[in-house]
Amino acid sequence: MAARDEHPADQPPCPASGGGGLLPGELRAWMLLLAATGAVEQRLRTVVKKSLDVSHDEFLILCLLAEQPRGGLRMTRIAELLGRPKTRLTYQIACLQRSGLVTRESVCGDRRGIEVALTDKARRLLREASDTLADTVREALSRFVGPEQREALSALVPELADEPRRP
User: Fold this and answer.
1) 8-state DSSP, 145
2) What GO molecular functions are on record for this protein (predicted)?
3) Which segments of 3-160 are extended strands (E)?
């Protein structure tokens, strides 16, 4: 067996956002951002399960619904926004409904349309967990989003680099 296989620390580091590889800059930048957001998501999964006792995908549904000023969202819209198959979403909504976190109602005038909304219980749980969840995201972002990711984001969306930082 080669020494390289025995000592993975001796292997070269992952390529940076600079050129030289097969991928165009935009795709390299996107991959750096995906890696960073994936790391943040992993940190958040554990806290979401502990704080709200729901899966990460169910948490994303709750977050979408929490941003609605009134009422809820149609299931088809939730599926579009999350990029999830409708069949998978139906299962997740059923789990949230059994937990008392969402309601499902038919949309008036559309026998196939189903609207999903948060319950008061879900609103209370989200309020109680929001500081912990926000702290988790902030800590994970500060750990996993460094100069390479900021440079990648600026390369993908140049107008972001021109905007002043918010306090």
Assistant:
1) -
2) DNA binding; DNA-binding transcription factor activity
3) 73-74, 102-107, 110-118
Q: Give 22's Cβ-side CA count (13 Å radius).
A: 0
The count of structural domains within the chain is 1
Eight-class DSSP state of 13: P
99: which DSSP letter? T
In a domain, 6, yes or no: no
* Residue-wise pLDDT tens digits, 108-164: 777 778 899 999 999 999 999 999 999 999 998 888 888 887 777 787 777 766 666
Q: Are 35 and 91 in contact (CB under 8 A)?
A: no
pLDDT tens-digit map of 88-101:
899 999 999 999 99
- CA–CA distance, 133 with 43 (Å, rounded to integer): 10
CATH code at position 78: 1.10.10.10
Which parts of 53-113 fold into alpha helices (H)? 56-66, 75-82, 86-98
For residue 101, being part of any structural domain is answered with yes
Whether 77 and 114 have beta carbons less than 8 Å apart is answered as no
Compute CA 67 distance to the chain's CA centroid, rounded to the nearest angstrom.
Answer: 14
Q: Residue 6 to residues 12, 15, 131: CA-CA distances in angstroms? A: 14, 21, 44
